[in-house]
Amino acid sequence: MDLESIVKALNLKVRSGEDKLGTEVRGGYTGDLLSDVMANSKEGDIWITRQVHQNIVAVASLRDHAGIVLVQGSEPAKDTLEKAIKEGIPILVSDMSGFEITGRIYNLLINKTG
Amino acid sequence: MLELSLHILDIVENSTRAGAKTVYITIIEDTIRDVLSVEIKDDGSGMSQDILEKVSDPFYTTKTVRKVGLGIPMLVQAAEGTDGKFRIESKGGEGTIVAAEFKFSHIDRQPLGDIISTLVTLIAGNTDVDFIYRHQHNDRVFILDTRDVKREIEDVPINHPDILLFIRQHIEEGLKEIRAEV
Question: Is the pLDDT of residue B182 over 90?
Fold first, then answer.
C-alpha cells in the first residue's frame, strides 16, 4: 500500500514530501524514543510518533522510512519542517492518538480495511 | 538514548576522537535549584566557528560512513525537552566545552543511569587520556582524578582489572557518600 492511500483513508494532513506519496509502505513502527526507533524500525516503515524535534527527520532519513505521522494534532517544529522539505521526508499529521492511528494503519496494511 | 550517562559516553568519545589528552566531566545535582547539569570539557582539537554552528544539526556529521550524526542533537533535544538548555563552546586547537542543563524534577528528564560503568569504560578504553570526574550533589563533592590514580599505581596499567575494580568501588562509595541524607 502506498502512502497516499493511507493519507486518504485516514484523512492525514500532508506537511511535507507531497511528491513522495507514491512510496510503498512496507510496515510501521510506533515510538518516541529515537534510539529505540533507530534500532528497531525498518526501511519502508511508516513511523508514528509524538516527537516534533528536527531529529526525527534525521532518524527517518537514516532508516529510510516511508514517512512520519505526528499524532494528537502535533505540528512539526519550524526547523523540522524545513529539514523534512529539504530531505524529501513526508510528514503527515493526524488528530488521532498514537494508539488509534497505529491500530488504523495496522489494519490498513494487514487487512486493507481502515 | 535512555540515560544521561550514555549521552556522556557519546560526547566524551567525540573528545577522545578529537585527540583530547585531558577530559573534565562535571555533574552537578542541585535539588534546591532543581537543576541537573552535565559539562564535558576537553583539550582536543576543537572546532571552527562555522562547524560549531552546525553541530546541533542532525544532518551534520564528521563521520563519512553516513550522512546523519545524532550524538549532540539528541543531547540538545534531551535538555530542551526538560526545560533545560544546551551550550557548546569551542576554539580550534584549544578544546571544546559541551554543557547541558536539565530540570531535575522534570518528568521527561532521563535518569543519570549507570555513570560508574560509563566512567570505567572510558578509563579502560582510553588509557592515555586523563579523566577528572567531579560529581557534586548539593553542597557535597566527589572527585576522581585518574592522574592521581596513575601516580599511585606507578607501573601498573590503569586498565588492569584490579585497578578498574578499585576505581569502580571508589566511585560507588564516593557517590553514596555525597548522596546520603544528612
Answer: no
Spell out the residues 6+ positions from residue B119 whose beta carbon is closer than 8 angstroms to its own. B25, B131, B133, B144, B167, B171
With beta carbons less than 8 A apart as the criterion, state whether B68 and B61 touch.
yes
Size of interface A-B (CB pairs under 8 A): 38
Query: Can you say whether the dihedral through the CA atoms of A10, A12, A17, A18 is positive or negative?
Result: positive
Cβ within 8 Å of residue B53, ≥6 positions away: none
> Which tens digits make up the pLDDT trace of B29-53?
999 999 999 999 999 999 998 888 8
Q: Where are the domains of chain A?
A: 3-111
| Residue-averaged pLDDT of chain B | 93
Q: Give the type of residue at B108.
A: D
Mutate to test the interface with B, among A53, A79, A87 (most CBs of B within 10 A): A53
Q: Which amino acid is at A17?
A: G
Provide the 3-class DSSP secondary structure of residue B38. strand
Out of 3.50.30.40, 1.20.1600.10, 3.90.1150.100, 3.40.1390.20, select the CATH number for domain A3-111: 3.40.1390.20
Q: What are A88-102's pLDDT values in tens digits?
A: 999 999 999 999 999
What crossing angle do the helices spanning B161-179 and B115-125 adopt, rounded to 10°? 150
Q: Is the ipTM of this complex over 0.85?
A: no
| 3-state DSSP assignment of residue A79 | helix
- Chain A residues with CB under 8 Å of B77 CB are 34, 53, 55
Give residue-wise pLDDT tens across range B72-87: 999 999 999 999 999 9
Least Cα distance to A101 among A9, A26, A2 occurs for A9
Task: List domains and CATH numbers for chain B.
Answer: 4-179 (3.30.565.10)
In percent, the amount of chain B with pLDDT more than 70 equals 96
Assign B99 to helix, strand or coil.
Answer: strand
